[in-house]
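User: Study the shape:
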Amino acid sequence: MEVIGFVALAAGLIIGLGALGACIGIGIMGSKFLEAGARQPELMGELQTKMFLLVGLIDAAFIIGVGIALWFTTANPFLSQIARLVK
């Protein structure tokens, strides 16, 4: 396998596992939000604000991971060092 293949594999893992973690986290948080809203409907406004803030933070972590993966794919600073190790 060539060096660029390892880079593509690593980028795919970063994006895939980041998306999986973000989706699971947002799903769990959404279910807990609905449970809390069913128990105390008067707090729905406060809970909704906090939920959307956390959704943004979880999504931002995933987007940062995608940015790093794409950066390594297009302009990998470690490519020359990896090429030396593989040879």
Q: What stands out?
A: The helical segments are 3-39, 44-74, 79-86. The chain has one domain: 3-86. The two ends are 11 Å apart (CA to CA).
